[in-house]
Each structure stands twice: as structure tokens, then as C-alpha cells.
């Protein structure tokens, strides 16, 4: 009976640990990765914007003939489109960094609290507190042995 209870509590703790790892993994590998990709796009857009701005300035300082005016209009159009892209990505980066900072703190706090409470309840042998911790964090576990009995129950 004691071993069955230990097995059940161990499976419950394992579910909490898996949820903890999954949430941290999502934060690190998805949320942070998305923010880094946006920053890289922003850097590329800034370089393109600077290049087109420089081209436009050079054409503006040169002689004004029919060919130059045509190239000047094209350069102005390209400059404006890259400027818009640059400004949009700058705003996106600011928003993503703000959300990342807020979410990083919230997720880490919530997950560390879950981890601490689950480990404490497990080692205290408090099954109700362990299950309550999982309910508090809305973690749905498959009922241990629902699909097939554990190796211990088969004995």
C-alpha cells in the first residue's frame, strides 16, 4: 500500500516537473527566440534603411538632369518603403521586449512556485497538498494507471 501511494505521488510529481520543464522550454525556445528573430530583422532593416538613405542623399547632391530625376524618384520611393519597414520593426521590437520582460518574470515566478510547492508536498508525504498544487496551476494529469496499471499494481 505504501509503495502504491509512493508510486502515485511520484507520478503526480513527475507531471508537475514535466509541466515546469515544458513552460520554461516554451519561454526560452519560443518566446525568447521569437524576440531575437525580430531583433535580427530590425538590424537588417536598419542597415537597408541607412543604405537607401545614403543613396538618396548622394543623388540629391548630384546634378539634376532627366535621368537623375528619374533615379531620384525611385530612390525616394525605396527609401520611404525601407524607412516604414524599419520604423515598424523598431516598434515591434520595443513591444516584444516589454512583453518578454513582463512574461519572463511572471512565468518564472509561477513555475518556481509550482516546482517548490510540488517538491515540498512530495517530500512531506502530503498527497492532498501535492494534488492541490496541481489544481492551483490548472495542471491536468492522466489518472495514474487509467490506461494501464503501473508495474507495481500488476504485481
Automatic annotation (TrEMBL):
Keyword vocabulary terms for this entry: Coiled coil
AH domain segment(s): 1-135
GO molecular function: phospholipid binding; protein domain specific binding
A Pfam family per the record: Arfaptin
GO cellular component: trans-Golgi network membrane
A GO BP annotation: regulation of Arp2/3 complex-mediated actin nucleation
Coiled-coil zones: 72-103
Protein name: ARFP2 protein
Source organism per UniProt: Columbina picui (Picui ground-dove)
Source taxonomy: Eukaryota, Metazoa, Chordata, Craniata, Vertebrata
